[in-house]
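quick one: pyridoxal-5'-phosphate bound model?
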Amino acid sequence: METDATTTSRALATEAVHAGREDLAGLGLHAVPIDLSTTYPSYDSRQEAARIDEFASTGARPQGPPVYARLDNPTTARFETALARLEGAASAVAFASGMAALSAVLLARASQGLRHVVAVRPLYGCSDHLLTAGLLGTEVTWTDPAGAADAIRADTGLVMVETPANPTLAETDIRALAHSCGAVPLLVDSTFATPVLQRPLEHGARIVLHSATKYLGGHGDVLAGVVACDEEFAGVLRRVRFATGGVLHPLAGYLLLRGLSTLPVRMRAAAGTAAELAGRLTADPRVAAVHYPKLGGAMVAFEVHGDPHRVIAGVRLITPAVSLGSVDTLIQHPASISHRIVAEGDRRSAGVSERLLRMSVGLEDVEDLWDDLDGALSGRSARSGRAAGHGEGRTAAHVPDPSARVSSPAVP
Ligand code: PLP
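yep, here:
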């Protein structure tokens, strides 16, 4: 949805709470209404035809009711407005997942005859796979940021980077990379940073992508993706979304908007804990290396001297699970899970070693998290059922073990 440029001078924390909701008081509402309609009645077919023609040629949001839910949805549009405002973008377009969002970007560029992508490793495993396998008919050249300019060809439609990158937390200088891209748009996957820590468009990127499944939703209960960009490209993305169907459900749009309102508070709290844990891990002789971004954030990656699988099996409070950005702390072994789909040699050369663990720090008390990590690093043995993986064994493994609990410290 297009943003109202007149309100962009507000602080991010204020926008997080108010953007996309400005009309509510006038409607006599406080909470955001959820519009679950799949279709919208109209007694004037000529007018509907004109609106469909307009959408088909420009991808602009239809004035008035959306005609059909694959064109647009008012609840999701509120989330799009808010996210665009937080990123300082003219527009944002939401999708059913982060991968649907990336797919739409690639299809949009390919539809303009620009099938070649220059990309910097590491990327999230499935993003890497989508490009490497050429599943959408695109072709990729992998490079480091310094080699991007040389890798660009006449048919290059996109340069893509994640910063901080999943899972190594490697950081790229967005401004320098944007400069080497020339006229080719730079897409920054800013999932790990969120607009609280980084606004890539201010540094020359043209497209920002989020797996909104992560920090934007923030509670591990919404799968979503969003692209923030200029209005012209947003129009192309909306046409791709309409034609390919990767729309976001309005209930997810509602949850994402609600998630945005606490994003700055969640990010700051989790980042403080993550920085403290990164410091303790750095000083710990059981840990070989710690990766924590200069930018900050709530992700910590570390390499252990011992067996990383024992750490995963030994956590009690922390949940051993893929994904990130929720209120609770998660840990996973990228070489086995999030980046399993990337060929071993490519994984290794991108810095994803077999000893690397990736932790998404949540909102728990730092001492409780450290106690848990400390026990897991000491090789606390796995509880029965924990390693079973699926079904009842897995459910049982999530029941807290009273003997492993520490007494609760005072909550400030
Ligand atoms: N980008 C990054 C950095 C991710 O970590 C992920 C998922 O983990 C994605 C994109 C894909 O997002 P989704 O899982 O919402 O499709």
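The pocket of pyridoxal-5'-phosphate is lined by residues 97-99, 124, 127, 162, 166, 189, 191, 211, 213, 223, 225 (CB under 6 Å).
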